[in-house]
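Illustration: Pyridoxal phosphate homeostasis protein.
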Amino acid sequence: MSVAKNLDRIKSQLPENVTLVAVSKFHPKEALEEAYNAGQRIFGESRVQELDGKVKDLSSDIQWHLIGHLQTNKVKFIVPYIDTIQSVDSWKILFEINKYAEQTGRNIKCLLEIKIAQEDSKFGLSFDDCRTLLRDQNWRALRYVRICGLMGMASLTDDEVQIRKEFKSLKSFSDELKSSFFSDNPEFCEISMGMSHDYKIAVEEGATIVRVGTSIFGEREY
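Result:
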């Protein structure tokens, strides 16, 4: 099945209030162009070097989301063009994003990455670490960073009960933070969760953004 048909199928399954991020990491620019020609405008990448190359070669109206772990020394390379950084997992990263965003005069949308999976290999803040970060209040002074919600990845498992439980925990935590820290900020409304194997469950549990790659582009090229 073609990329365009895959996109149509997935979009037909998503409510209007759910945004589809086409995860294009490890796929050639030709695949992205096919998705672009089919109407997709939001793409997700996880490696700064790969993202940087694609930005130079593809249309300027694409909204790029960084979904992979971000090192502080790579922030300056993506701030000039990135739309959303979904993988913010420390105060240091937030500070660096704000610093370089100020230099470029841009506002960067950020999602706080929360570790909900039962896997040591996953990145993200624990619930308690996230609460501590927000209680410190320093983030309120970052004029060029817009904290718009949370991102999380469920465990890589076929156990739908566990996946649903993890997604429920992220939605519940989002509600808690909205009440405690963002009650006056309508921008804090995004919950990015769900990938090719579990995005339908994520939507049922409150996702506003899903990150789908394999179901659109097929298996990755390594």
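Reading the tokens back as a structure: The beta strands are 19-23, 42-45, 63-66, 84-88, 108-114, 145-152, 190-192, 209-212.
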